[in-house]
């Protein structure tokens, strides 16, 4: 049996996020879906897996159902497959942030960097003066990254602010391109950098996963595997499972 895996997120005001937890958890259990979904004032983030019909039903409810009252109208979604169920249980967790940067002034709903499609990404990397940043944690970078990318050597995403303050200068690094697994960390990171005075900040729309899905391997600048926070551990071109070692999930 093949399972459908959905990675999703959206920054959107959810003042009632605490009340959404139980009905969402119950819906996923009824559909026999497993995975983890994070809910916060700022939105939703998660990865879940189940049968094709079950995942499609859940996505339809998230986007058009009564539970979220059609607030998830711009849900960022990426689908892949797994030969086995990649999660042990279903969890819906309440958080302060759906991806933890730890800067209350950073709000991707107000301002983010310029989105770059996977088809245009290689062209951007060839532009002179570009600084390419990998915004992921160190153990993720070890598994694979883009050629020439700067590794911030952070243990968790909340350390990204310190890296920017110590290592980057808006007057010197005028054009920055960044990437992450599915796009969500770059929403926060690009918003933060723009607030710090960086003029041009670009980020890969849909993240590494969308790039590996859309860009032929013969044209790819990606080297290695892309770590994912489930039992599959890593994906390669075409979102095919790759062998790897599991690490704790700490965005």
How is this structure best described in words?
The protein is an alpha/beta fold and 251 residues long. It has 2 domains: 3-94, Alpha-Beta Plaits (2-Layer Sandwich), CATH 3.30.70; 114-241, 3-Layer(aba) Sandwich (Oxidized Rhodanese, domain 1). The chain has helices at residues 17-30, 52-64, 118-125, 138-143, 160-167, 184-195, 207-214, and strands at residues 3-11, 34-40, 43-50, 76-82, 90-94, 114-116, 131-134, 144-146, 175-179, 200-204, 222-224, 226-227, 234-235, 241-242. The strands form 4 sheets. Strands 4-1-3-2-5 form a 5-stranded mixed β-sheet. The protein is globular and about 55 Å long. The two termini are 30 Å apart. Mean pLDDT is 94; it is low at 244-251.
Summarize the structure.
The protein has 251 residues and is an alpha/beta fold.
The CATH homologous superfamily of the largest domain is termed: Rhodanese-like domain
Radius of gyration: 18 Å
H and E order:
EHEEHEEEHEHEHEHEHEEEE
Low-confidence stretches: 244-251
Number of helices: 7
Overall shape: it is globular
Domain count:
2
């Amino acid at each position: 049996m093949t399972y459908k895996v959905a990675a999703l997120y959206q920054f959107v005001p959810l003042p009632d996020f605490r009340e959404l937890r139980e009905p969402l958890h119950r819906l996923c259990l009824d559909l026999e879906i497993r995975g983890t979904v994070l809910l916060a004032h700022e939105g939703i983030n998660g990865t879940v897996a189940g049968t094709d019909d079950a995942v499609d039903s859940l996505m339809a409810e998230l986007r058009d159902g009564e539970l979220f009252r059609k607030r998830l109208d711009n849900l960022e979604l990426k689908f892949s497959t797994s030969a086995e169920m990649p999660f042990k249980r279903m969890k819906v967790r309440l958080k302060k942030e759906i991806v933890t940067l730890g800067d209350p002034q950073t709000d991707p709903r107000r301002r983010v960097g310029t989105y770059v499609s996977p088809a245009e990404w290689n062209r951007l990397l060839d532009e002179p003066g570009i600084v390419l940043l990998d915004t992921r944690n160190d153990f993720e970078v070890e598994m694979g990254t883009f050629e020439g990318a700067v590794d911030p050597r952070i243990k968790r995403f909340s350390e990204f602010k310190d890296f920017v303050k110590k290592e980057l200068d808006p007057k010197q690094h005028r054009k920055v391109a960044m990437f992450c697994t599915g796009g969500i960390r770059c929403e926060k990171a690009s918003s933060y950098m723009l607030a710090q005075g960086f003029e041009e900040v670009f980020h890969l729309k849909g993240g590494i996963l969308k790039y590996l899905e859309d860009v032929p391997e013969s044209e790819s600048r990606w080297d290695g595997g892309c770590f994912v926070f489930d039992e599959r551990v890593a994906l390669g071109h075409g979102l095919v499972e790759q062998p790897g070692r599991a690490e704790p999930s700490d965005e």
